[in-house]
Amino acid sequence: MKRLMTRIDDDLHAQLKAKAKTDGCSVNALVLEVLQALADRPQGAAQRQPETDGFDRP
Questions:
Q1: 40 in Cβ contact with 16 (< 8 Å)
Q2: Nearest-angstrom CA–CA distance, 56 and 37
Q3: Whether the Cβ atoms of residue 35 and residue 4 lie closer than 8 Å to each other
Q4: How many separate helices (H) and strands (E) can be counted in the chain?
Q5: Is the pLDDT confidence value at 34 over 80?
């Protein structure tokens, strides 16, 4: 598997870190899971719903 790195805002990173800790996983695992869930959605369904925090787990 090829590994890539991206830079994100410090505030977003802090949110992701807190969510990952709550969920008992790493930030990397959380981000991969969220991205995979988005990629698996049907075309046009990848837009985040306003009532969610953007971290809904499948």
A1: no
A2: 9
A3: no
A4: 2, 0
A5: yes
Angle value at C-alpha 41, between 37 and 44, nearest 5 degrees: 135
Of residues 5, 7, 28, the one with CA closest to residue 16: 28
The residue type found at 33 is E
User: Token pair for residue 9?
Assistant: 């805002």
Which residue type occupies 31?
A: V
- pLDDT for residue 6: 87
- Integer CA distances (angstroms), 7 to 13, 41, 43, 46, in order: 9, 25, 26, 22
Return the percentage of the chain with pLDDT > 90, whole number.
59
